[in-house]
Amino acid sequence: MTAPPPVWKIALAALPALLACAAAQAGDANKGRQLYGSHCAICHGQTGRSTMAGAPHFDRGEGLLRPDADLLASIRNGKNASPAYRGILSDREILDVVAFMRTLQ
Ligand code: HEC
Q: DSSP 3-state helix, strand, coil percentages of the chain (rounded to 5)?
């Protein structure tokens, strides 16, 4: 019987998958711009200056001071007048939108 591989070997074997996962998390701001334009700009403004009372101004960073994962959950589930995008945009697309929102100033 051979000894089980040491832990570091297992960790090393998993590394490419972990790196691929991290890369997949980062959104594409260019794709996000389009999606934001068709889904969000009507209330939040294409430049992030909101056109609807009560909607955060993303150009001032309002609502953006938190990790992408939190924003993803918030956009998926919606909040009051901000519609839920679960089933309308994929998580991938929402992360693209988040990446775009982070370019607004
Ligand atoms: C119909 C108008 C409307 C549309 C369309 C809309 N929002 Fe909103 N959004 C709002 C309003 C109003 C709020 C403030 C909600 C509150 O805090 O009560 C808000 C809040 C938010 C917040 C902060 C939520 C929080 O957890 O504090 C985020 C992030 C957000 N919207 C992202 C988006 C994105 C991304 C889109 C497009 C995919 C979008 N919204 C589309 C009106 C809208």
A: 55, 5, 40
Q: How many domains does the chain have?
A: 1
Pocket of ligand 1 (CB under 6 A): 39-40, 42-44, 52, 54-56, 63, 71, 74-75, 79-83, 85, 97
The pTM of this model reads 0.83
- Asked whether residue 24 is assigned to any structural domain, the reply reads no
pLDDT in tens, 8-54: 777 677 766 655 555 456 799 999 999 999 999 999 999 999 999 99
